[in-house]
Amino acid sequence: MVSLKHETIWTRSILFLSTYQSLNYDNTPLNILLFRDFQKYVQKKELVSLPGEWKKLTGNSSIQEACHPYLLDAKSELNQKGHILVRAHLYPLFKKVTKKNMIYLAHYKSEFEQMQKMKGCHPLIYLKDIPEAALDYSEEEKVYQTLEMIQSSASTAKFFKTTAFTAWINKKLPLLLKRIRRTHTLFDEFKISKTIYGSTVNRYGSLVTTFAKSRFIFTVNIQHGILTELGHFPVNADLNFVWGKSHRDYLVENGALKNNIKTIGPVFLRNLEDATKRGKQSTKRGDQLHLLVAMQPIGFAFNQQMITMIENAVKRLPEKIFVNYKLHPDQRNRERYEKLLVNKNSTILLHGEIPLNDLITDSDIILTPFSTVAYEALMREKIVIFYQDLGDLYYLKNPPLFVQNEKELHDILRKMLDDENFLADSQTRLVLKDPPHKKAFEGAKLLQLIEKFEKQQK
Asked: pLDDT band for position 2 (50/70/90)?
């Protein structure tokens, strides 16, 4: 059953998968590759929610069950020899692995340049540098002919016939076909035996995973953040590694197959070296508190509202609160957010400007709408406050601290400044269901688990 707040998005998403099921190119279904971008498109639209939409369309199926008819269900070939294709930014996980034929694929220029600095990350390939395969042009013509038939069909929903959506899909398709041709070249040049990615749903994860599955190649997904309905479904790999039992249970409750999900320790790609180290206990430094705000790319209007709320709450506690706003990797415009600050002890930090571990360790409180940073902070026994109620916090044992407005945040900060017992009580209130692992997870162990799983499937 889909949550009420996402019912409209998911109803449109299943309609999208169904409507464009016949769009294929190079034996690869395009509806799956466009799926996550489509959801982002829908999120930007102010659509009227009609109660019961999901039940009427799917019979109240789980998300995974509703998506399943549109996923590639071919059985992958197991224990094949060849190269392992890995998303480039996963290299730190595998840097101690020397006996495997790994190929690292970067999808962004910044990712490629960053991984070039790591000596062992080779061969390293940038997707845009790969020449496009010379596929028969008739295949591309067929894609556009099929699209035209779908758009003109009387059975196609009005939503897909709007000028805005037509412009969107006509813009997306040519770029997608180019990526497929480049991926085809890569798979032709190297014999790929399996793929390992941090997402099989987003734009590039779905490209590589779906292309591989269309060639019966074994696919692996590694959990890259807190699981949510949007961005992590459908589960689309042969084998999925998650951080612990609570994460596996969340996927299974939403229809994923339990046998294809294995638990490992948390894998934080930004700081694999010391992801399990605990920071200092949150203690009051005189009459000061240090607050870390982990931002999320969910729209400038939302972030403006959150920052304004925090700044106004802190303004009433002069000289006592130091605030670091850490931008998400997708947020690069520091100046835009700096204009919202009104307190002299508030700072906007670009992602990576200060190591995340240091930011968490030096903070007393972490505030976020939802973020993997919160999970990392809880592993270090830090206090976490959530702004509004935007996520399914399935990984917590107890109800979390929420703030909805300036007054609620001010009152909490005031209590923390005045009452050391309140600070200590807040620390013990939030507990993860899955105990932190004693040491960071390593790629060699992961490859052993993949090999073991493949043998069990025979």
From this structure: confident
